[in-house]
Amino acid sequence: MKPVHLLSCAIAFVALFALVEVSGAKDDPHPLSASPIYGVTIPGGYRQWELIAPALEDAPLNELRAVVGNQKAVDAYRHANLPFPDGTILVKLAWKRTPSKEFASATVPGAATTVQVMVKDSKKYASTGGWGFGRFVDGKAVDEAQHRTCFACHQALVRDHDYVFTRYAP
Predict the structure, then answer these.
(1) Torsion of the alpha carbons at 168, 74, 125 and 46, rounded to the nearest 10
(2) Burial of 66 (0-12, 13-18, 19+ CB in 10 A)
(3) What's the rounded Cα separation, in Å, for the pair 18 and 82?
(4) Parallel/antiparallel/unpaired status of strands 63-69 and 131-137
(5) Three-state DSSP class for 169?
(6) pLDDT one-digit tens code per residue, 47-90
(7) With 90 as the cut, is the pLDDT of residue 20 above it?
(8) How far, CA to CA in Å, does 86 sit from each of 15, 47, 66, 73, 167?
(9) pLDDT at 152 over 90
């Protein structure tokens, strides 16, 4: 291959890569926003992760929830491996509960309310049981005051389950 053709191919490849990167960034519904205190972000591709468990939250929140996890989380749940290993990531998606128009006794997801993320890193988050927390509304992290409540609640209620509320739904 001639040097000019090599250079042309290299330029074309770089241009194509840049176009893919820019268009991918525009399509991402969750721009990179880090939670205060912990620096946790919404992980890319989390909507393709496996379901750990669904949940219903009664009033006052009145939400449908689904918790998904990365492969480390799924493996830990399937093998009852507590504490969860470093690298475990859990993402909780929440929606307002809405009555189904088609089936009166069913409830369906309404408006999205939050995306909440837990990241296990026993060294980085040693003071919070090894977990970092992130709560996001419309892809943006909520304020520091809300993040200060995360660990206290987990510590008070689920210390014996490695600070995680969600149980695996087989």
Answers:
(1) -110
(2) middle
(3) 42
(4) unpaired
(5) coil
(6) 999 999 999 999 999 999 999 999 999 999 999 999 999 999 99
(7) no
(8) 37, 21, 22, 10, 18
(9) yes
